[in-house]
Input
Amino acid sequence: MLVVLGQHTFGRIIRFALAQCKMTPASSRKGATDSESLAHLATRWGIKQQPSRFRGIFCHSSGLRIRDQAMGLNDANGGNRRAGLVRNRQWWVWLLPGLLAVAVAAIVSWWLPPIPSVLDDFGHLLIAETLLHGRISNPTPPSAESLQTFHELVYPRYAAKFPIGTGAVLALGHLVFGTYCGGLWLSAGFACSAITWMLLGHFKRHVALLFGLLAASHPYLQIFWSQNFTHGWLAVGGIALVVGGLLRIRRRMVWQGQVDAVAWHPALMIAIGVNVGIFSRPYETVVITCLLGAPLLARIIKDRWYQVPTWWRHALPGLLVLGLGLVLQAYINHCITGSWRKLPYQLHEEQYGVAPLFIWQQPNEPILGHRFLEQTKFHYGWSMDMYRAAAGCNGYLNVLSKRLEQTYLHWGAFLACAPLAVVIFPRERRIFSAYLLASVAGLYLINFVPWVNTHYMACLLPIAILLAALFARGAMQWVMCSLNLRNSNDRIATLAIGSMVACQGIWLYQATSGLAQDQKRSCNAWAIQRQEVVRELEATSGNHLVIVRYHPNHNAHQEWVFNSCDPIQSKIVWARWSEELNPQLVRDYPNRKVWILGIESANSENESHGTHATMGKSRVVLSPWNE
Output
């Protein structure tokens, strides 16, 4: 019953989106992308098909040129007006999954309000607030040593160590929707639209639309990434643009010594995708982009595309965008670290970090040291334990197995279909085996980072979806051929899309309702407690200074000391307890009511050793401070 309802709900929208994209003339044959189809088109329209050394790789571009010549769609300047018409109509296809993703994420946020509960979340929120104030970084606040916290710099400037991408989208979401959660919704919409655009570079519209909608309604992605300020949506969208651009360049870049009139478009999208990925997950983006782009680079050098007169003109927009991204990152480095070349992340690790970023590196001795016990437990305890567990051959394999297990648990259907697509369907094995090998090599290279989180693997999700779409298309074609249903392609596509999205929507509803009934499972209970204390203090008159005093067994991952971008003007200032620093702290923040917040975690450091996201309600005592 619900499946039928889902089919009818999406049926009209899907049929409308598909109808907007039908530009192929009735006289042309569907799927004319191989050499046999080219010969058919050339014979039918009386056009001599000239040999080309790029045939087989650019056969789709050759077919488009033959058909365009017959239809008179090539203008006097060599421009391809047909490609422009198709792009103008295809925007419905990739826009629909993005709108659905935004709507679903907003509904889940209304049902299960996002609360910053991971240490990284507060860093991204600090970036967003700083950008909304028109700054890249903030001046060092008074009593900066008492205000030190995880993943943030206070010297030489007050800023978070993370790339600016996630925080910038959170700031944009706040401008558009009035809440930082809007940035999560926009990130989800961008990624799902990028996935659909990527698939349109190789598949028919119904396959691209199906997997775009499946990504938009995926329970794990919508419940955890769209409701968590630390997510992988931007990395997914960036790599999807890269893969989509590579699929299009493979078909239309150079043909018979000439550059296609729309070749600059995929090149530009690749550059945008690389910049988006670098500003969210830089290491993973560079690794996957280099692996995916290596065959294209080899083809450019081997066939000397750079000697084609117009090649550089079409590559120029993409190169300019990449250059602008590098200039922007250098400017951000200068604003935060004072150096054009030193990243904020790099400076933070020099000042506070102990465990290295990669397992082959040696532990670091921090410049500023760790004055407070929580810092020592985090850096010398949990962080170093993760590094030791991943070091060596056995540790590397153990981390790899954990990473695969976690990724399969969250993206199971996409990962299961990916290798089958290359094994079962040999027709396009030459093309897509390279993507599979790139994803496997990327997995092994990403695994050199000892920390295991699903969003670290976000750059691999577009490739998994691409291969899963290949498998799904082959399976659907086999079923339709077996049942002799070739004349009902549109109806079957509509039924498949509506049914699968409806089933996944039911799964999403059940998962969200289950988490909403038990808040301890959806968010750390300590984060809810912190939100309640903030509301209680904001409801009172005057400004406040809260000095947090942790129990010796407190879990370092349940951190309360996080401030706004301008602590002096903030209503609440959070600081750490120190007998030596407290008097100066109170003098630096005058005319505030001073509170002592005693905290003891329900899950102590020993009880939850090695666990990044612990549960349990802390014992909190808020009392006035008496000198």
Remarks:
- Residues 1-10, 12-18, 20-88, 605-615 have pLDDT under 50 and may be disordered.
- The longest strand covers residues 592-600.
- Residues 238 and 276 are 5 Å apart (CA to CA).
